[in-house]
Amino acid sequence: MAGIREVAKACGVSVATVSRALNGRPEVNEETRRQVRLAAEILGYRPSVSARALVRGRSDAVGLLWDSAYETAGRRHPFLLSVLVGIKQALDAAGRHLILLNVEADRVGPRAYLETAAQFQLDGVLVMGVDSRRPALCAVLESELACVGFDVPISGPRATYVASDNRAGAMQAMRHLYGLGHRRIATITGPLSMMPAELRLAGYRDAAEELGLEHEYVYSGDFFLDSGYTCGARLAELPPEQRPTAVFVAGDEMALGAIHAFADAGLSVPQDIAVVGFDDIEAADLVRPALTTIQQDAHALGAAAVDTLLRLVDHDPATHTIGPVLTPTRLIVRQSCGGN
Amino acid sequence: MAGIREVAKACGVSVATVSRALNGRPEVNEETRRQVRLAAEILGYRPSVSARALVRGRSDAVGLLWDSAYETAGRRHPFLLSVLVGIKQALDAAGRHLILLNVEADRVGPRAYLETAAQFQLDGVLVMGVDSRRPALCAVLESELACVGFDVPISGPRATYVASDNRAGAMQAMRHLYGLGHRRIATITGPLSMMPAELRLAGYRDAAEELGLEHEYVYSGDFFLDSGYTCGARLAELPPEQRPTAVFVAGDEMALGAIHAFADAGLSVPQDIAVVGFDDIEAADLVRPALTTIQQDAHALGAAAVDTLLRLVDHDPATHTIGPVLTPTRLIVRQSCGGN
DNA sequence: GATCGTTCCGTAAACGTTTCCGGTGGTACT
DNA sequence: AGTACCACCGGAAACGTTTACGGAACGATC
């Protein structure tokens, strides 16, 4: 409630000095600074963010663009919220604020995000779960507004993205299965139009080559339970001597579907067939057998997104460019592969 | 980028008129208003939120207080994010913005939230997953700042809470089991210090009385998987003629634990024992048998929270008071109770 | 024809900061 | 002794809005 003027009066200095003292400017005597700090503390002074943003022309805030409809459909809630926690913590550490934006039908239009960002004088925006082909997002990418995508491959003068290292994660899974003795390993993919699905398949193939596996068994799903079941059922129909002894499923939800299919076909996991998933969703540890899977480090991902965004804010797009950053994944061994 | 002055110049009127026209004030000619609107549209004028907040002394924004540590531990991510979606949509409809706040160790102190709110000139705050006994939250409750809690029972001059109607939800579950012919029904509770756990137990008891059930079987858990397993195992040890034929578990995660225990004890669900959970977590529909449960309407909850907060903002605490609001729950019938 | 009320609009003062510009006093150098 | 520099600080002008106040034009009323 107390303004900068009260603090100035209390110390017998001008408001300019108070501002300088509190903002750590060098051109102020240390003794004076001490007194100002003290007075500010006592009076409980907190600078008005509006006033500050108004005069400085920037708000020290970043916006979070998300599409709630997409998220609901994509069922990626838990993971995204974990990422959000990581984002928020990194932002706190950097002294930035976070404003949630989702532009809906009413104020639609290709420049909607940009205008909102200008209105709030945002430093930049974080994008999660928004279709990268949406015109509103394209406009952001073409602009000078700093922007980092999350699991969505975007690029622009001041735009890039962060994601888990999906390819390496898939290879981790494959190596784990290989280490357990499996030589016929199948995969169930996500929709290949989505970057994570594509890269996980690429990782499967790279690993197959690296490990010298002879056959590929690729089943294509859509990340949802039912497609996992369908693919699992088809796989279970193969004659035992041809049937893969393990399957790397590109998403936990599909992995659970596949396990149901195996159970219905009289195959037991992990004895008859080993399963490793991807994502480490909550359910992975709630089902029996608990699912061995590849975990994404949500916290690191959030931190990386913030870090990248902040670097993007003040850099010159002309001189050097900032590329995508991939964060490592982790193998979580539970029961669905046996071997402990 | 275009300011109010450009618009004024373009129409040949003063900035005051532009402001009035755009804000729907009555004291402006409709013809003038039309022209101003047009010019603003063409120039792409968007008022600066900082400038507006500065002069009006309020920001049209609400803050979201959350404790990320708590959430991580509480594993309630998916539900909370769903609620968040509901909140955001309601806020959009009301033309308010949402700012995420989590005050951590560095800027700690009992008045931290209040100061932050003042700094941002927030209309009010929404609270989710913050321990209601935290001094920082207590200070908010005692203040004049509008505040609505989410699943945490708080009250103050301008504070109240919203929650699912946990008691009624528990009764729904019980009536469902009763309708399927069950007469010996047990319950596994959450930690009774938490409001939802307490009310679900109350609903169990109310229903038992209403339905004329003779015995109570109360097992106390802590909302986590393992406690569900433990309680389930104890329950399974009872001699068959005394053993309840159904159990209402106050949380889905515990319900899954109980089901594992039943399986390990050779009891099959739903034939030997029926199970109904609470929460409708994601895993509920991913396990087999899929879990019959009580669903909370996250969207309605979010909307109710916003609605309540906005009513709280401009009301006189002296004249009338605004109480807690409970939103209805819904029974989701899957497989764990049989009967379809 | 003076008075009054209405409708509409412009002038200017806020709001709480940051920062440019200039000024003062002191020290070091020529 | 004059000049130059430096460290420190104050005055005041921004930043882009909203709104209190006053005034002009006009019709209606006495």
UniProtKB/TrEMBL annotation, chains A, B:
Keywords: DNA-binding, Transcription, Transcription regulation. SMART domains: HTH_LACI. Residues 2-56 form the HTH lacI-type domain. Transmembrane segments: none annotated. Signal peptide: none annotated. GO terms for molecular function: DNA-binding transcription factor activity; transcription cis-regulatory region binding. The keyword Transcription regulation applies. InterPro entries: HTH_LacI, LacI/GalR-like_sensor, Lambda_DNA-bd_dom_sf, Peripla_BP_I. The keyword Nucleotidyltransferase does not apply. PANTHER family: HTH-TYPE TRANSCRIPTIONAL REGULATOR GALS, LACI-RELATED TRANSCRIPTIONAL REPRESSOR. This is LacI family DNA-binding transcriptional regulator. The lineage of its organism: Bacteria, Bacillati, Actinomycetota, Actinomycetes, Catenulisporales.
